[in-house]
Amino acid sequence: MVNKCNQLGICLVILYGLFTTLDVNNHKVLLENMKRRQFVNLLSVSLLLSLSPLFLTVVYGKKPKPKKNENWIPLGTVAELDLKGQILRKKTALGTVLVVGTSKIKKLIAVNPICTHLGCTVDWEAEENIFLCPCHASEFTTEGKVQNGPATKPLSTYKTKIEKNTVMVARI
């Protein structure tokens, strides 16, 4: 309600200024003394002020939230995963992806194996259940979180699923 009153007050002031002008010498409000330039200036200012809420709404208004990308990317076969215990693909739509586990385990682990410290490829240490960087010994948990530095940022992680004997990943 207050917003509407403010807008109405501004509109009334603009309209008053548009149709009248102040003659400083005679202290009279006269429409006849308004020159073409004054009229165009007042019209321009009034249009700018009256349309500014529209421009602000367009520029700063709520933008639709982007839909979560549910594009699942096939990485390899279940047989390949069961044989090696991991699948590493360097060139995918998500970048480099490492999937660790077997088809018998319900929860596969998928990360971007590029160390956030200096960009080396981390190794999966199954006995210790960690990702270990061979360059500077940064350790990461199965969730990609830094367990031991010098890295300070976590590894990117992905959702996994097995569908028709294909191991697939997608962004979280």
Task: Describe, in plain words, how this protein is organized in 3D.
The chain is of the alpha+beta class. The chain has two domains: 2-60; 73-171, Rieske [2Fe-2S] iron-sulphur domain (Rieske Iron-sulfur Protein), CATH 2.102.10.10. Helices cover 29% and strands 28% of the residues. The chain has helices at residues 2-19, 36-60, 78-84, and strands at 22-23, 28-29, 73-77, 86-92, 95-100, 109-111, 123-125, 130-132, 139-140, 146-148, 158-163, 166-171. The chain has a four-stranded antiparallel β-sheet, with no helix packed on it. Strands 3-12-11 form a three-stranded antiparallel β-sheet. Strands 4-5-6 form a three-stranded antiparallel β-sheet. A hairpin with a 4-residue loop joins strand 7 and strand 8 (130-132). Helix 1 runs antiparallel to helix 2 (36-60). The longest helix is centred in the N-terminal third of the chain and has 25 residues, at 36-60. It is elongated, with a radius of gyration of 32 Å. The two termini are 42 Å apart.
